[in-house]
Every structure is written in C-alpha cells, then in structure tokens.
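Question (not urgent): is this output format expected?
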Amino acid sequence: MEIPALFTFYEDKEIRITDGYFSSASPRRGDRVKPITYFSSAQDTGVKPPVVIIDCNSFEVREFSEKVMKHLVIKGTPIWFMTYIETVEDVFDAFNKDAEFVFAPYHFVASDYELKDICDVSDSVIPTVFIHKGKAVLPGGKKGDVVKVLEKLVGLGFYKNCVLDTDRSLDAYTWSVIAEDYPSTIPFIDSANGPEGFENFISPYLL
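Got this back:
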C-alpha cells in the first residue's frame, strides 16, 4: 500500500502543505503551497490509508516545535508524524491524541543511550534511516551500511523501522536483503512504485 507523505508547516494561523524535498538529509519546504484542506478534500470517502505528516517547522529550527502538531487535524485518517527528535523528552512532546506513530530521523537522535530510552518509553517511535548516495546517514554526518544500522536498531528493541531513500541510490540487492531480514521495515522513496517484498511504502504527495 502506498502511503502519502505531506511536507507540512504552520504559518499565518494555518497548516499548509508544500512540494517539499530532502536536502542535506533534512526536509525542506518547496515553492508551491496549498492549505492542508486541499489534501483532505481530494481524498476518497472510503477507508483512508495513513498519512505521513512531515513537520518542516521543527526541522527548520533543528528542535521540536509544537506548531504543526498543536494545530494538526485530519479527520478519519491515521497520522504518522515525522519530526525532529533528539532526546526522549522530544518524544513526549511530539505525540498527541491523533498520532499513531512518530518517525524520528536516526541521524538527529543525540546518542544510542537516547535511542534506548526512547524505545523503553514508547513502542510507537519508528527510527528513520536516511540514505544518501547508497549509504546510511549516521549521527555527525558520517555514512555507514544501512543493514548494519537496522541490525543495531532491532537489537535496541525497535521492531519497526523506516528507510528513506529519496535519491533512489540504494541498490536492488540491498533492498532485497532488508526485505528478507527486516520485513517490517517501511521504505520511503520518491516514486509511485515501492521496492519489492514490503507490505507498505511511503512516497511524497504531489501537489
């Protein structure tokens, strides 16, 4: 199942969506902007898939901001919320009554100790491993092997993870290894077709 991701920000007393993108392993606003009601009105009236809300306000200031989460309302749709998470305290701030999962970019989390604490306090946080030029982005801007990162995250207790590969640089063999060894991984790709072997995948919503 394809799950849409909205690049979202709060401004002038309104939640808006934009044709965002990823730069330097962080979400950015795009040039085109519409009110979030544009997305809501375009959805079918039947059973709705989850929607990923990317909190651009928080990523821009590199700390959790409550602007998007505080004002976010999408009726009848499960919300998966991607925001800036550095410490376990950020996790408490990021959840509200509407968020089913919080997606936390792995390279922004302060340390493995924080990761362990985050896992201990909530089983609804999904670490998100960003890929750049075929490698996983690690804390401090270093690069590493995505399979080894997933092995560590599972070892810490995270049963579900996300691999974000919007530059489509992860090869098919690595995806097949992930699908075989870590089948609960959720791919996030900039395409309408996800890699084989996964139940769900996330892709940006096109304005």
